[in-house]
Amino acid sequence: MTREGVFEAQDVDLNSISARYGSVDPHERRMAIIALAESADASGVELLIRALSDPDAGVRRAAAMGLEQFDGLRVAQALASALLDEDESVAVAAGASLCELRAPEAASPLLALVGHERSEVRAAAWRGLRNLRVDSVLEKATEALADPNPHVRRESVGVLAYFKREELLPALIVATRDDHFEVRRAAISALAFATPEAVIDAILSRLGDTHWQVREAAANLAAKIRADAAEHALIRSLSDEAWQVALKAAHALGRLPSVEAIPALGMLLSHPVSNLRKEIAAALGEIGRPEALPYLTGAVDDPDPDVRKIARWSIHLINSAP
């Protein structure tokens, strides 16, 4: 029942802790539950579950946090019930512990909550289901992409993404056009398991998204899967108003590698953001063509030591090429 490697089990006197938990002082009860959680003793799970019904919210929160190191149906049922706690901090703690579940049997009590009237409960249930990877969630997760709440839609994207299955691509691609940027960003990031040909239209579309974080995610996806067909769009992204987008585009162009991008990359070695200059210098080295040397030679005097180091490395890489 315990999750190995999370806590180191300690000797614990359950009778003593149970007696301490019987105190009328909520502080004493909370400290008893904390001590029990720190012991990582599976024999104390039932007391932790019992403490989820304590009249004091601080005790209930400690119990919900303590259950994160345990797994199985009984724990999942208790934490799922705690998601409905009237105290928000208890519900949040229960949601965090649910994310640590790995036992497939833990899915059933969470699936029972994905249709709950409160959107925060639905979102937390999907978040807990993400790591379980049980096929029984697929149909409902796909349906949840149409949930009225964007946080629920984002979490359902996360569930589908973990399966990395080709048959789920159409639903995920549709989600890249969601009304909410967080859903679009999650969906475009979820396509990293696909072939470039299958998702190139989604990449090109999101590189022109209205929100910079979505454009950044699209450029990052292009880098991960080496989407050659996005080369020209990525070169245009080097002039994006958000330097973070330009950074990911530079990384992608370096990985392709894109000889055509060398002039546009070289011009950015004078950009005020040093993190971007570092990525530019690295990308020019990855491209590995002598046309990049004039730009890199100027960067060896960059005010940032990391930029200077990478520029020298890139020059060496190019000069050492056969």
Itemize the secondary structure elements and their pairings:
Blueprint: H1 14-21, H2 26-39, H3 45-51, H4 57-66, H5 73-82, H6 88-98, H7 107-111, H8 119-129, H9 138-143, H10 150-163, H11 169-175, H12 181-189, H13 196-206, H14 212-225, H15 231-237, H16 243-255, H17 262-267, H18 274-287, H19 293-299, H20 305-319
Protein name: HEAT repeat domain-containing protein
Pfam families: HEAT_2
GO molecular function, one term: oxidoreductase activity
- What is the SS-derived class? mainly alpha
In CATH, the topology of the domain at 1-101 is named Leucine-rich Repeat Variant
The Cα radius of gyration reads 25 Å
What separation lies between the terminal Cα atoms? 57 Å
Protein name: HEAT repeat domain-containing protein
Pfam families: HEAT_2
InterPro entries: ARM-like, ARM-type_fold, HEAT_type_2, PBS_lyase_HEAT
GO molecular function: oxidoreductase activity
General description of the model:
The chain is mainly alpha-helical and 322 residues long. Among the domains are: 1-101, Leucine-rich Repeat Variant; 257-322, Alpha Horseshoe (Leucine-rich Repeat Variant), CATH 1.25.10.10. Helix content is 62%, strand content 0%. The chain is built from 20 helices and no strands. The chain has helices at residues 14-21, 26-39, 45-51, 57-66, 73-82, 88-98, 107-111, 119-129, 138-143, 150-163, 169-175, 181-189, 196-206, 212-225, 231-237, 243-255, 262-267, 274-287, 293-299, 305-319. α11 packs antiparallel against α12 (181-189) and α18 runs parallel beside α20. The longest helix is centred in the last third of the chain and has 15 residues, at 305-319. It starts with 13 loop residues before the first helix and ends with a helix.
